[in-house]
Write a structure and sequence with these properties.
single chain, alpha+beta, HU Protein, Chain A, 3-stranded antiparallel β-sheet, 21% helix, 29% strand, extended
Length: 163
């Protein structure tokens, strides 16, 4: 299954006053914990119930560590950490800073590896993803591996592979 995208016009004009178009992912559904547990159970010796219990407990443990101001890294998956996004203006004195000035958010960064020269080699959740523009769905190659391009907006007839 490819990652589907569509053109989306920016709501903010660039320096020359033009609102440009950019690719935006089209979500085709949502997979919940039950479905993930079912699929993991199919790949392992665990039952669906055992797998669901592990996933539920993973969420509790990750939340506990994040709320303790720790980052959490899951090998081969990625890392989670809290960040604060300022929603109210700044203040002039450091002693006047408070959490009410911001919104607490979770930042997720997919796991990656590096080449010997230090350049990025892979991002575990992105490598191999195939991007297809929604209005070019009928052009999707039947066989994986026949797709071309780089996955960067519109090249290769609207298709491409990331990684």
């Amino acid at each position: 299954m490819p990652v589907i995208y569509k053109p989306k016009r920016s709501t903010i004009a660039n320096k020359s006053g033009k609102k440009l178009y950019h690719p935006a992912v089209v979500l085709t559904g949502n997979v919940d914990t039950e479905r993930i547990a079912e699929e993991i159970a199919e790949l392992s010796s665990l039952s669906k119930g055992d797998t669901k219990n592990v996933i539920d407990n993973l969420v509790i443990v990750v939340r506990r560590h994040l709320q303790g101001s720790e980052s959490v890294t899951l090998d081969g998956f990625g890392s989670f950490r809290y960040t604060m996004k300022t929603v109210k203006g700044g203040v002039e004195a450091a002693e006047d800073v408070s959490a009410s000035q911001s919104q607490l958010m979770v930042r997720f960064v997919p796991a990656s590896s590096r080449n010997p020269d230090g350049s990025m080699a892979t991002r575990s959740l992105v490598t191999g993803a195939r991007c297809v523009r929604f209005d070019h769905m009928e052009e999707v190659p039947a066989e994986p591996g026949n797709e071309g391009g780089t996955g960067q907006g519109g090249q290769g007839g609207g298709e491409g592979t990331l990684g």
